[in-house]
Amino acid sequence: MAWFQKSEVVIAGILVLAMILIGLVNPAFWSLDNMFSLLRSNIIIGIMALGVLLVMISGGIDVSFPAFAVAAMYLTIKGMLYFNYDGVVLPFVAAATMGALFGCLNAFFVYKFRMIPLIVTLGTGSMVRGFLLGVVGTSMININKMPDALIDFGKSDIINMVKPDGTTFGLTAMILVYVGLAIALHFVLRYTMIGRGVYALGGDPEAASRVGFNIRKITFFIYCVAGALAGFAGLLHSGMIWLANPRDFVGLELDVIAAVVLGGASIFGGRGSVLGTMLGVFMLVMVKNSLIIMKIDTTWQRVVVGVIIVIATAITAWRDRRANA
Amino acid sequence: MKNAMDFRNLLNKDNNIVQLIMMTILIFVVMTALSPDKFLRYYNFESITYTFPELGLLSIAMMIAMLTGGIDLSVIGIANLSGIFAGVMFKKFATDAGVADTGFGIVLMGGVIALGTGLVAGALNGLLITRLKITPILATLGTGQIFTGLAIVMTGGPAIVGFPNAWAFIGNGKILGLATPFVLFVVLACLIAFMLRRTTFGINLMLIGTNPKAALFAGLKREKMVLLSYMLTGVMASIAGIILSGRTNAAKSDYGTSYLLQAVLIAVLGGTNPAGGRGTVLGVSIAVVALMLLSSGFQILRFSNHLIDFIWGAFLLLVIALNAYKNRTR
């Protein structure tokens, strides 16, 4: 395929065009301050999008990950407070493990009962969130009670700058975490057997199993990794906003799915890349944030996200049809 | 003798229905045993006849979309948007006496606007799915956002409160001692059941869902049928929106968001195959009654709403497991 036909290149082109347009409407868009805050808003959605990308490459769809993220985050922080533990590594391992366990539940139902992933994840998402709010609690954990180490971790910057008026701003170090995870997933998808298996499963499950891929192993891998990424992102989010809210992330699934579709992944499976997804995430976050800069009423946000989903899916559907013809 | 044969035939053919009825009876007995004095009150059942029709109509709408192997995630958005459009219009035409006394003609026009909203929204879904070939999940996910977003734009966020009396009658009134929503639900359910069972349209829909390729070779106009089915789904959703706004005397962009999961659950529980081709109005209707009994029982037992969400989710997974198990032994 010629390089200009690659979907990543097309998305990047549209992205640059959109950035120039927004910059023309309001030059404040190009300020470093705004750029850093844009990148910062990419992190949580981006990490979750990596998980959703994995599920979508395999031909499924996941709407349960916001519930998993919030449950892993809230339970981990509750646990830290209970044991009076103050650290960084162990809590993240715990949150990711919890997310992976929830993901296993998805994988079990999708694999064992051959049920449509959408319906399975609707059920598991509702269960996990219902359990969290109904049994564990509904009260927020505010900054005065949050573990200090977590907040300090979330505060760390890689670049620090001072504005002319004396206030400081910086680029959060969490961006490195996001990029690191993305590179890791990229290599897994590209160069490992199980990564190729995810594409094979999405392309044609029957063919994948005939050539010897272990469908069960791949299915569990997909949903556990997606769950683990969600759990990890959940805890990171609370570290970055210094707050643990058990009602967080409601409706986030739509934004994340929109971003992944925007990044060129096909819901029919077998297509999608980490780079494309990261571009899609950036595009979505940028458009949503820039509505304010462009002086468009924020009530239009939902409409814009919806229109983006429809246009992006229409284009991918058109591309898939042309590829198959 | 012949009657007995027919009955056995019915048992075999509609195995699912019998199981659903048994499940309903089981839920009824358990809830009665747990709190007989509160659950068995007439008031409890009367309030169920007011609250279940909107969910029932949404579930039937979901089932219609599932018949062709699709799904409609925008039903809640359509329902709310329909109510809001009508509400905005009533506010425009309100006389000095207030919205409550709006004339019959204008109320009728509000109904036409609401139904029209559903029709147009459904047509948009159908066109995206058939013309642009977007998968139903993503198409309706996107349009659902658009409809909900438009609802936010129209209202600016808060609810529109105050609907005409005649409108409220649809949600709160009584016809011959029965709740209006209930009567409306029964009439519509019968109509849809007839449409699916006895008309070419319905039978074609089933065929398309069972085997799209065979249906294509048989010369069925698949695209037109699918488009029509999403329009029907949209109209059903807007009727649910009319009832909802009539009952609560208000319309808001985020009403009934938990109905989405419940509508999917009820459709699947009622024996609809999400892959297409199978589903009955009767099954869905029994399932919605069963789950409303369950939910009202839990409310009487003072379970929190979140726990009820948990139970809905668990129930959905349980039903999936049971269905898979049943299909294997068959």
UniProtKB/TrEMBL annotation, chain A:
Localisation per UniProt entry: Cell membrane
Name of the protein in question: ABC transporter permease
Transmembrane segments: 9-29, 35-56, 89-111, 118-141, 169-189, 220-244, 256-287, 299-318
Lineage, uppermost ranks: Bacteria, Pseudomonadati, Pseudomonadota, Alphaproteobacteria, Rhodospirillales
Keywords from the named record: Cell inner membrane, Cell membrane, Membrane, Transmembrane, Transmembrane helix, Transport
Species, as recorded: Thalassospira profundimaris
UniProt GO MF annotations: transmembrane transporter activity
Topology within the bilayer: Multi-pass membrane protein
Pfam families: BPD_transp_2
Automatic annotation (TrEMBL), chain B:
Pfam families: BPD_transp_2
Location(s) in or outside the cell: Cell membrane
Cellular component GO terms held in the UniProt record: plasma membrane
Keyword Repressor: no
The UniProt record lists the keyword Nucleotide-binding: no
Membrane spanning residue stretches: 17-34, 55-86, 106-130, 137-163, 175-196, 225-244, 256-273, 280-301, 307-325
GO molecular function, one term: transmembrane transporter activity
Keywords: Cell inner membrane, Cell membrane, Membrane, Transmembrane, Transmembrane helix, Transport
Origin superkingdom: Bacteria
InterPro entries: ABC_transp_permease
Name of the protein described by the UniProt record: ABC transporter permease
